[in-house]
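seq as requested:
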Amino acid sequence: MKKLSVLMAAMLVVSGAVMAQGEETGSAGAGSGASAAGSGLGAIGGIATGTIVAGAIAAGVLAAVVSNNRSDSPVNCPTGQTLVNGTCRPNQVLGCEGDDLLVGEVCTGTTSTVTVSGTGTVTVPVTFTYPATLR
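struct tokens:
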């Protein structure tokens, strides 16, 4: 959007310059004895000099916009880093707490629960899962 705004502003300036030159040529009038060539606004091969200048300026602005549009160069991150959303970040891996087992992106852990009943103590292994985290 910014590029379009710059292009439109440049074209407005160019068209204003051409219109001003056109008004100056027209103000000499046929009865005053002045001509467009005599007032410094010559023509080359039937094309007014102002038109040539306006075309050159417009071509320059267009070339600048195209050049700016192609200026995005690839980002090369240093070794050990990866590009994430336009920013180089250190490489990270998924990991689990302690010695819990990593399966895909899920960590699996086991703990023991001690249950005391009227007849004795029972130890029951309990398995739980949780999402792995980046480390």
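The CA atoms of residues 94 and 134 lie 5 Å apart.
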